[in-house]
Amino acid sequence: MKIEIPEKKKLVFEMTVPIRWGDMDAMGHVNNTAYFLYLETIRIEWMRTIGCQPDPKGEGPVIVNAFCNFYKQLEYPGDVLLRMYASDPGRSSFESWGTMERGDNPGVIHAAGGATTVWVDFPAQKSKPLPDWLRKIVE
What we know:
Radius of gyration: 16 Å
Low-confidence stretches: none
Order of helices and strands: EHEEEEEH
Structural class: alpha+beta
């Protein structure tokens, strides 16, 4: 099974994280919830590197949905090579996609997922147009 990432996707960030002993479940492989944490980790690190820190009294990004497809088990010990892509900027949202590979076996995707991010005015609890600086990054 192959994840469908749009052709116009843009690689925006990559990083490696260690698989922790506590990420495993009773079956001896990484628990499904850890994959979502890996996706969150790369999304937050990418946002931090571009200066996109949410301001509860102002504006910022909100994830409105998230998904993950599992293709091959990840197991401890090892590292996960995470790659994040962005696509489909709209008026107030864009899509992000993440792939997960073992650091010692690059090119083999073990899992892939994504999320829809909406730019919001937190006090008003309403979406706002993507800022121009962010739109330029995700286009």
